[in-house]
Every structure is written in structure tokens, then in C-alpha cells.
Amino acid sequence: MTREDQRAVAPPAPPALAAADAPPVVADAPPSPAPAAEAATPAHGASPVRRRPALVITVLALLLVAACAASLALGRYAISLESLLALDETTTNVLFFMRLPRIAAAALIGAALAGAGCAYQGIFRNPMVSPDLLGASAGAGFGAAAGILFSLGSAGVELCAFVMGLLAVGISYFLSVSIGRSMRGVLVLVLSGMVIGNLFQAFTSAVKFVADPNSQLPEITFWLMGGLSAVRDSDLAWLLAALLLGGVGLFVLRWRINVMANGEEEARALGVEVKRVRLAVVACATLLTSASVAVAGMVGWVGLIVPHLARFLVGADQRVLLPASMLLGSTFLLVVDGLCRSVYTTEIPLSILTSIIGAPLFIYLIARSRKGGQ
To answer: Whole domain around residue 349: which residue ranges?
Structure first.
């Protein structure tokens, strides 16, 4: 059979596949991006990215309510459901004059310290920053020690602690402004805060050295370890006013803190006045920290580890991170205060348990973040 006859007998070749019918290419090329319709937010309901932070905030609020309810029953005088419903004279005195003010103070102080730490970590772009970075806690500690030394009473001690906390941060800030014109502003501010903080700690040591070792020195030492056993109703108004002023200020500045977290140059390019925003955030955080330390004494680790926990839950967006940190801080301090009242026959100072719980937890968070980065 000739070659022409073979062509005539052979079946016709199949038509070429259209582009839509072609099989997918199995190659090493990167996958094509998702269609815009799939990436867009659905018309009904929030997207999964926004639904998760809202769910976390709701869960944290419920946990706070549960912690408050559990704290009512914890303590040397246990309050059962039957006694709570009966409300005899003893239960009424314990509940309304001791237990409820303490629970409210723990919730407010935890929210204040966690919010201040969250704001500081945002504007300084450093997750290792805590609310006492610029010397607020050291100044407040010196003010309280001086108030105890001169026998000013509980109200005078709190006022001295609050004023000296504000003064210490003010000195740190204006010292950084005066000597740091040719250097990086954030670095000079942090170094100034370290210097002023150590200076006020030396002043506190000097006060302890000259204090009466039988009465004043134990009181100063116990105050510096932190506690809520001496909380009064008047302290709640003090704390609530500070939380409203400082907390509302931080809420207003949340989006600016987000912008400053990308760097000062980017923030200026987007129209943010970096120096004014930093001063406003420092003022609000200092107000929260000084008021908290004036009432509860030196309470460490709350403003450092709680924002880390909240960041793990909701991300780094300050619009969600700040309220999550404050809710989580309230719950954390309520739990720690409940343990302080229940673990031992006598009440344990707050800073002891916050350090015992906070240090291992902080190490775990650092190890987890490092593992995730690798």
C-alpha cells in the first residue's frame, strides 16, 4: 500500500482541545491568586478574619464575668449561694464592704496596667516593654514610702504615690527632650526612663534606711510587694476616674498607635504627628499606671505578659488588641488575687504570685513565638 493510500485509510486526528477543556498544568509554577469574589467580604455576615476577634472579645468578657462571680466566693469567709440569697448581716458586711470593692479594684487595676503595657509596646515597637519603663512605678514607690515615713495616712500615701509617679515620668520625658535633639527620640526616652527609675529606687532605699525598723519599715516593705487588702470605696472612684481619662485617651489613639508601629517615617508620611501622639500615649499610660500603683502597690508582670497573651489571641491590631488586653488583664488579676486570698492561711502579696505565674508564662510565650518564627 502506497503512502498516499495509508493517509486515506488512517482515521482523522482529534481536534485540538480548547483552552477551557485543557487539563491543568502540573508544574512548579505558583498557584494562581484566588478570585476577587472569593476574597471579598460576603454580603451577609462578617468575614472569618473579623468574626474571630469579635468572638475572642466576647469570650474574654464572659471569662471576666465568671472570674468576678468566682471571686465573690473565694476568701477566708466563704460565701455560698444560700448565704448570698439570705444576705444576713455578716454576709452583707463581707460582700458590700470588703469583697465587692476588692473585686472592682482588681478588675480596674488589671485593665489599667494591661492597657498601659499594650500602648507602650505599640509606640515603642518592642514587646519587652512594660508600664514601668519610664519610671512610673519607681516614682510611685518612692512617694508611698515617703508618705509612710511622714505618717500621712492611707489617703496621703496614695496621693504621694500618684503624684510622684507622674513626676518621675515627666522628668524622664523632659530630660529626653532636652538632651536628645541630635539622637533618636525613642532611644533617649527609654534611657532617660531607666536612669530616673533607678534614681527613684535609690531614693526609696534611702527612705527604708532611715525608717523605723519596728513599724514603718515593715509597712513600706509590705506596700512595695503589692496587695488589695486595704482597698476602700473611695479608691474605686479614684481608679475609675483614672481609667476613664487614660483608657478613653488610648482608645481614641488606637489607630495612630497602629500607624506608629510601622515606624516614625511611615507615620509622618501618613500625616501622624509622632511627637504629640507619643506624648499623649505616655501621658495616658502614666495616668493609668500611677493610679494603679498608688492603690495596689507594686504589681509586676501584668502589663508585660497580658498584652502578649492578647496578641496571640487577636493579633497586633491595636483596635482589637487594646480592649482584649484590658479584659484579659482584669481577669488575670482577679484570678491572682483570688489565689492570694485562698492559697495560704495569711494573704500573699500580689507581686509574689504575679511573678511566680508571669515568669514561666512569659518564657513559654517567647519560646512559642521563636518557634513560630522559625
So the answer is: 99-369
Q: What is the pLDDT of residues 82-118, one digit of tens each?
A: 777 777 777 788 888 888 999 999 999 999 999 999 9
- Better pLDDT: 274 or 287: 287
The answer to whether 195 and 179 are in contact (CB under 8 A) is no
C-alpha cell at 239: 481608679
User: What is the rounded distance in angstroms from the CA atom of residue 7 to the CA atom of residue 4?
Assistant: 5
Are 149 and 211 in contact by the 8 Å Cβ rule? The answer is yes
Number of domains in the chain: 1
Joined together, the cell numbers standing for residue 222 give 509590705
Helix-helix angle 48-73:302-314, to 10 degrees = 140
**Mean per-residue pLDDT for 215-241?**
90
Give pTM, 2 decimals.
0.82
Question: Can you give the CATH number for the domain in which 152 is found?
Answer: 1.10.3470.10
Which H/E stretch holds residue 164? helix 153-179
Question: Going along the chain, which residue ranges are E strands?
Answer: none
Is 80 part of any domain?
A: no
